[in-house]
Specification:
alpha/beta; 3 domains; four-stranded parallel β-sheet; 11 helices; 10 strands
């Protein structure tokens, strides 16, 4: 029986045993391919070495014409050669031999080697671990409190896991790509988005100022511990909501202008977006005003006196419930109007485009 090892694969002429008539005997038709490797052996990874091994196996098969083969391997790295042999000759058995080393340790070594060779896995696993190991002693030195350092590390680890788990990195990458394309293509939405961000920041600033003014005043309203958070949040939303609505309207207007200028067509579904924004703003404004008015933080909405010739209307103040109902009904009417407009447009234009 012919015994083929990795030396035989390197030199196809070696290891031949023929019968006296010059042709392989019946025993030679069942060969055993033995590919021995060690940690110090050259790395066979890559397409080129695999093709070289395949050519050597083809040469041996052409010389010996085996009916089957027994593959003997002694390392996890040799596992990649088994499919190459199976594609050329029938493999009757695979014998895994452990020579002066632990198979589990060697497998773990090659798994770790493959892991370190994968750039995505390195960035996902090793970078957070390294960051934690760097930040932990720094926090411990600054705060001199183990609980504070552990809490900060736990928060940082949770943020990293959420960042990767929710795909925020992919989202930010897509946003950056879209912003770059919009900037290079000269879209109007680039300018409107910048304006929208500025308006949103103004809204945040106005809301923070309004909420901070209630920090020491919630106790006087009798709101209790719950009011220390709820009422400032309502005041923040009440003061910042008009700016947020304007920011959303400016952003949607830029999107509509891009569609109109780019293809001379506007999608009917996009026409409903501004109406939805205004409707949501009116409803939220009504509820925040209701809570603040009932708490005595803001005054009632007063309608001034009106005089038009012989017709005169005396001024009056709206009750909190009346004010809430008026704003909610107004929001619903605006939303219905937007939906009706989009529905009629879709009926007139089945493709949903407005020329």
């Amino acid at each position: 029986m012919a015994r083929l090892n990795d030396r035989t694969l390197d030199r196809p002429d070696a290891g031949r045993e023929r019968a006296g008539n010059g042709r392989p005997s019946q025993e030679d038709r069942r060969s055993s391919a033995s590919e021995r490797s060690s940690p110090g052996k050259a790395d066979r990874s890559g397409v080129g070495p695999d093709r070289e091994i395949a050519c050597q196996i083809d040469a041996l098969i052409a010389r010996y014409e085996p009916e089957g083969a027994i593959v003997v391997i002694d390392s996890a790295a040799d596992e990649q050669l088994v499919p190459i042999i199976e594609s050329r000759v029938r493999v009757d058995a695979v014998d895994r031999v452990v020579i002066r080393q632990s198979r589990d340790i060697e497998s773990a070594y090659y798994l770790l080697k493959q892991f370190l060779a994968n750039e995505d896995l390195r960035q996902t696993v090793l970078v957070p671990i390294g960051l934690v190991l760097l930040v932990f002693p720094l926090l411990l030195a600054l705060t001199d409190r183990l609980a504070t350092a552990l809490a900060a590390i736990a928060g940082l680890t949770g943020s990293i896991l959420l960042y990767k788990g929710l795909g925020i990195d992919d989202l930010l990458g897509r946003l950056a790509s879209q912003a770059r394309e919009a900037l290079y293509s000269g879209q109007v939405s680039v300018v409107t988005y910048v304006v929208a961000v500025g308006l949103a920041l103004v809204g945040v600033f106005a809301g923070v100022i309004a909420a901070s003014s209630l920090t020491g005043a919630t106790g006087a309203t009798g709101a209790g511990s719950g009011g220390e958070v709820f009422l400032p949040a309502m005041h923040f939303a009440f003061e910042g909501l008009p700016w947020f609505v304007m920011a959303a309207l400016v952003a949607s207007a830029g999107r509509l202008l891009d569609e109109a200028l780019r293809v001379d067509q506007v999608r009917r579904s996009s026409l409903n977006l501004p109406f939805g924004i205004v409707a949501v703003g009116l409803v939220l404004r009504g509820f925040t005003a209701y809570f603040l008015e009932r708490s005595g933080i803001i005054g009632s909405l007063s309608v001034p006196s009106l005089e038009a010739g012989v017709v005169s209307v005396q001024g009056f103040a709206l009750a909190p419930g009346t004010r809430l109902a008026a704003l909610v009904i107004s929001g619903v009417l605006v939303s219905v109007f937007g939906v009706q407009l989009a529905t009629r447009a879709d009926t007139d234009d089945p493709e949903g485009l407005l020329d």
